[in-house]
């Protein structure tokens, strides 16, 4: 991507992330001059525009009001000594976790340490070899892959997922459209999911997970920042769900500041034996 | 682990460097590297500087230089200088506690 385009998309991405347009333009101009002064490409100096916009937007937005004492609700997910074995490979060895409504748990660990497997087990999409999984009845689940059906439009997704939760089709579409608007996305009629950009597919996935105001939200953080698409600031969304009273379990593949998270579950991964 | 720690201390590092003297972004990157912290990516550095600016601890000004293009210079505000001094004191206290703990652990390892 050329320098000029990088700065243009930075300005746009900052606005999408809630920075006032005037300030977004000023920050983009600053970045342009800074890169020019350093004599390098903006992407080289600042990294991908999407990731940089996320960092700058977080820094630029007014500080949130002092955190109120959060109310933690009932337990929405309890894992007791959960083990998963594939043939002779032990992927999860005795995972314990108690997550309450109004809390966030982050699952971290190297590739192949069983993070996505754990998410599937929590969702009920895979079975634990042993151990106990207890969870709230109403869950939202946004996996990394297979979250959306490529040949259905967003509206059809809303109806389909709404039906699962016993919502009428009109209410499902209205709710889905409303939630999408909250993420800065207005679904166009007729475009199937396969035709949506990566960032928009992610938004669809998040809307579907949220459709029924679930008590427990399970999600897999997308690998982002490698293209210039407007990905959500997922963590802003995570804390918004938490503050609305949901328990959130996030599988994360990137290094983050995990200070604000209530539980960090580090999976070690295992060797074959 | 080093990277994660540094992430937590970057604001303090920047306050310390700017307490010494005002500087521009690339200059700060070089001084951080020269101090032994390795290369800090611009994607990490500039958001930190912006945050400090928003907190009123740092003031940024574009200045023309005699050679080459104009650059954005960062310097501490009065409040920034106070914050730097205060945080350095807190850091020292924290470091002493950690040192004592690490020494006890090292002794325990030797004795076992």
Which bin fits the share of residues in helices of chain A? Answer: 25-40%
Helix content of chain B: over 70%
Largest protein-protein interface: A-B, 23 and 24 residues
Number of strands of chain A: 8
Q: What name does CATH use for the topology of the largest domain in chain A?
A: Rossmann fold
How would you classify the helix and strand content of chain A by structural class?
alpha/beta
Question: What is the N-to-C succession of helices and strands of chain A?
Answer: HHHHEEEHEEHHHEHEE
Q: Mean pLDDT of chain B, nearest integer? A: 90
Measured between the Cα atoms of the first and last residue of chain B, the distance is 26 Å
Largest sheet of chain A: 5 strands, parallel
What spatial form of chain B do the alpha-carbon principal axes imply?
A: elongated
C-alpha Rg of chain B, in Å?
17 Å
Q: Biggest sheet of chain A: strands side by side, in what order?
A: 5-6-7-3-8
- Quaternary organisation: heterodimer
Mean pLDDT of chain A: 84
Give the CATH class of the largest domain in chain A.
Alpha Beta
By CATH's scheme, which homologous superfamily of chain B applies?
Winged helix-like DNA-binding domain superfamily/Winged helix DNA-binding domain
Shape of chain A: globular
Number of helices of chain A: 9
Largest sheet of chain B: 3 strands, antiparallel
Poorly predicted runs of chain B: none
Keywords (chain A): ATP-binding, Nucleotide-binding
InterPro entries (chain A): AAA+_ATPase, ABC_transporter-like_ATP-bd, P-loop_NTPase
Domain ABC transporter (chain A): 77-273
GO molecular function (chain A): ATP binding; ATP hydrolysis activity
């Amino acid at each position: 991507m050329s320098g000029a385009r990088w700065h243009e998309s930075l300005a746009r991405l900052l606005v999408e992330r809630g920075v006032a347009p005037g300030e977004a333009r000023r920050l983009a101009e600053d970045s342009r001059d800074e890169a020019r002064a350093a004599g390098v490409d903006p992407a080289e100096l600042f990294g991908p525009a999407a990731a940089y916009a996320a960092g700058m937007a977080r820094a630029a937005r007014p500080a949130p009001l002092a955190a109120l004492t959060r109310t933690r609700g009932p337990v929405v997910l309890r894992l007791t000594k959960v083990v998963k074995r594939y043939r002779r490979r032990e992927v999860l060895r005795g995972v314990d976790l108690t997550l309450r409504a109004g809390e966030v748990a982050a699952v971290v660990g190297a590739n192949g340490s069983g993070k996505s497997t754990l998410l599937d087990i929590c969702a009920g999409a895979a079975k634990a070899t042993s151990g106990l999984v207890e969870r709230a009845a109403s869950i939202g689940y946004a996996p990394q892959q297979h979250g959306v059906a490529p040949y259905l439009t967003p509206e059809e997704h809303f109806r389909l997922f709404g039906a699962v939760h016993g919502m009428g089709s009109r209410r499902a579409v209205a709710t889905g459209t409303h939630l999408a608007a909250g993420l800065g996305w207005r679904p166009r009629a007729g475009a199937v999911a396969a035709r949506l950009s990566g960032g928009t597919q992610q938004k669809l996935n998040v809307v579907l997970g949220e459709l029924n105001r679930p008590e427990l939200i399970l999600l897999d953080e997308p690998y982002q920042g490698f293209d210039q698409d407007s990905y959500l600031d997922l963590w802003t969304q995570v804390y918004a769900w938490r503050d609305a009273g949901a328990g959130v379990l996030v599988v994360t593949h990137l290094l983050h500041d995990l200070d604000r998270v209530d539980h960090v579950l580090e999976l070690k991964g295992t060797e074959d034996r | 682990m080093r990277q994660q720690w540094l992430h937590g201390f970057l604001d303090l590092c920047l306050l310390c460097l700017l307490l010494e003297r005002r500087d521009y972004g690339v200059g700060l990157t070089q001084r951080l590297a020269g101090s032994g912290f390795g290369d800090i990516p611009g994607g990490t550095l500039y958001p930190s500087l912006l945050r400090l600016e928003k907190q009123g601890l740092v003031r940024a000004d574009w200045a023309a230089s005699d050679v080459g293009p104009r650059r954005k210079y960062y310097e501490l505000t009065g409040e920034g200088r106070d914050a730097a001094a205060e945080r350095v004191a807190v850091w020292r206290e924290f470091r002493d506690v950690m040192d004592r703990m690490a020494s006890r652990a090292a002794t325990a390892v030797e004795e076992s």
